[in-house]
């Protein structure tokens, strides 16, 4: 099953109605891309929201088949906390009621929360329980598109790839706690009492020199008991202490290799009677829905190129023809976009600074103008004021009225 997120996606994908405030997806290639049309994907568009979207296909099983889950995701918003993974559901899922507690088979993809907590989740269902992988697989946290691939083989081995490069591989039994361990410590074994695990010991032949002074303070030899000292009343007299000039520190014997060292005692192991191999680990019989069940603080992640197949080579080829073609051009465009945004911010900051400076100049200019006017007022102006009053009186007597108008 291969799905690219192109026009008509709303007919193939179903939005859950389990809660009324789910975030909305939109179809876009984002701010930077390789091809504006071909690189369109499903983008989260609202901050601090849960998302629940799924698409259905004919049910299939990976019994005796390799299962490959592959998709691409671009966190162009610079995600700080949120999921970027997909889930595989059984055919019993009610898509309109899909939510975080809905039963699923596989959860796979990047999960980021904070700078140091970023990893690839690989959670697999087995006998009604969800098991998280024991290995820590670091995901990519930059703004470029990355390709994530999970391979589960019928021989109970797995592989995780990022950008078509292996980042983890091994046995399902070893890296998940599906089954009891093959070996356990022998409950009847005990470490011998005389077992010597000391790598080094103090040299029993080393002796402290007779002239070694290890008292930091000594009684003052020049001190004398006062003549009026009464031992019955004052107690036994003790002279004052002074620093010992010959003090050499606390003596310790030298350290040598232990001739009787036997190494660290290792608890013997035996076969675990509770262990039983299971050849059906991670065999799912009615995989029928792929969903995006997410929480994101900062939206903007773009999902694309979903692929479910049993052919590892085909998956790698599809990855090279989708993500592989766009990655270099997209990176160049992203770097150009970031440079343009940086320049824009610098220009806006410069304009803001200039406006602030102009505002300060205007304020200081008004004050200076007012100061000049104040300083220009002299006794010689009294005559002009009197003339103005006389003219005003003359106009009043002749009943002349002048309409007031605003000057523009």
What is the approximate shape?
flat
Task: Assign a percent range to the helix content.
Answer: 10-25%
Quaternary state reads: single chain
Question: How many strand units?
Answer: 22
N- and C-termini, Cα separation = 73 Å
Q: Quickly count the helices.
A: 6
Largest sheet: 8 strands, antiparallel
Task: Report low-confidence residues grouped into runs of 5 or more.
Answer: 375-380, 390-408
Mean pLDDT: 87
Helix/strand order: EHEEEEEEEEEEEEEHEEEHEEEEEHHH
Estimated share of beta-strand residues? 25-35%
- Rg from alpha-carbon coordinates: 42 Å
Overall structural class, as computed from helix and strand content, comes to alpha+beta
Region (Disordered): 196-232, 342-408
Biased composition (Basic and acidic residues): 196-210, 342-356, 398-408
Biased composition (Acidic residues): 357-376
InterPro entries: Calret/calnex (IPR001580), Calret/calnex_CS (IPR018124), Calreticulin (IPR009169), Calreticulin/calnexin_P_dom_sf (IPR009033), ConA-like_dom_sf (IPR013320)
Layout of strands and helices, then pairs:
Elements lengths: L1 E2 L5 H4 E3 L9 E4 L12 E4 L4 E12 L6 E9 L5 E3 L2 E5 L15 E8 L4 E9 L2 E4 L12 E8 L4 E6 L2 E7 H4 L7 E3 L14 E3 L14 E3 L11 H4 L6 E3 L11 E3 L11 E3 L15 E10 L4 E9 L2 H10 L1 H54 L5 H16 L11
Antiparallel strand pairs: 1-22, 2-5, 3-4, 4-22, 5-21, 6-12, 6-22, 7-9, 8-9, 8-21, 9-10, 10-11, 12-13, 13-14, 15-20, 16-19, 17-18
Family: Belongs to the calreticulin family.
InterPro entries: Calret/calnex (IPR001580), Calret/calnex_CS (IPR018124), Calreticulin (IPR009169), Calreticulin/calnexin_P_dom_sf (IPR009033), ConA-like_dom_sf (IPR013320)
Subcellular location: Cell surface; Cytoplasmic vesicle, Secretory vesicle, Cortical granule; Endoplasmic reticulum lumen; Sarcoplasmic reticulum lumen
């Amino acid at each position: 099953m291969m799905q690219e997120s192109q026009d008509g996606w709303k007919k193939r994908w179903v939005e859950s109605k389990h809660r009324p405030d789910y975030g909305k997806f939109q179809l876009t290639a984002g701010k930077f891309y390789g091809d504006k049309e071909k690189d369109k994907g499903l983008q989260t568009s609202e901050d601090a929201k849960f998302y629940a979207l799924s698409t259905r296909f004919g049910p299939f099983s990976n019994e005796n088949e390799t299962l490959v889950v592959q998709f691409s995701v671009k966190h162009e918003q610079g995600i700080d906390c949120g999921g970027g993974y997909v889930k595989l559901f059984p055919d019993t899922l009610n898509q309109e009621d899909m939510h975080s507690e809905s039963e699923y088979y596989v959860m796979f993809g990047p999960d980021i929360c904070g700078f140091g907590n970023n990893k690839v989740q690989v959670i697999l269902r087995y006998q009604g329980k969800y098991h998280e992988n024991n290995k820590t697989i670091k995901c990519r946290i930059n703004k470029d598109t990355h390709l994530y691939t999970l391979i589960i083989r019928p021989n109970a081995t797995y592989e995780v790839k990022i950008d078509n490069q292996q980042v983890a591989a091994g046995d399902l039994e070893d890296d998940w706690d599906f089954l009891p361990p093959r070996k356990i410590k022998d409950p009847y074994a005990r470490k011998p009492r005389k077992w010597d695990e000391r790598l080094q010991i103090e040299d029993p032949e080393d002796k402290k020199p007779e002239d070694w002074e290890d008292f930091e303070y000594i009684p003052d030899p020049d001190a004398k008991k006062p003549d009026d000292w009464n031992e019955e009343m004052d107690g036994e007299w003790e002279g004052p202490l002074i620093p010992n000039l010959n003090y050499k520190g606390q003596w310790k014997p030298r350290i040598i290799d232990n001739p009787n060292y036997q190494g660290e005692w290792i608890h013997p192991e035996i076969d675990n009677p509770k262990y039983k191999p299971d050849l059906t680990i991670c065999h799912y019989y009615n995989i029928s829905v792929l969903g995006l069940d997410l929480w994101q603080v900062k939206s903007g992640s773009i999902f694309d190129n979903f692929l479910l197949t049993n052919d590892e080579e085909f998956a790698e080829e599809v990855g090279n023809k989708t993500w592989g073609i766009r990655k270099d051009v997209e990176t160049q465009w992203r770097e150009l976009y970031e440079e343009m945004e940086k320049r824009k911010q610098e220009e806006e900051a410069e304009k803001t600074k200039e406006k602030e400076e102009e505002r300060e100049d205007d304020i200081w200019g008004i004050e200076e103008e007012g100061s000049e006017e104040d300083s220009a007022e002299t006794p010689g102006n009294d005559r002009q004021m009197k003339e103005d009053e006389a003219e005003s009186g003359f106009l009043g007597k002749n009943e002349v009225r002048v309409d007031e108008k605003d000057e523009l």
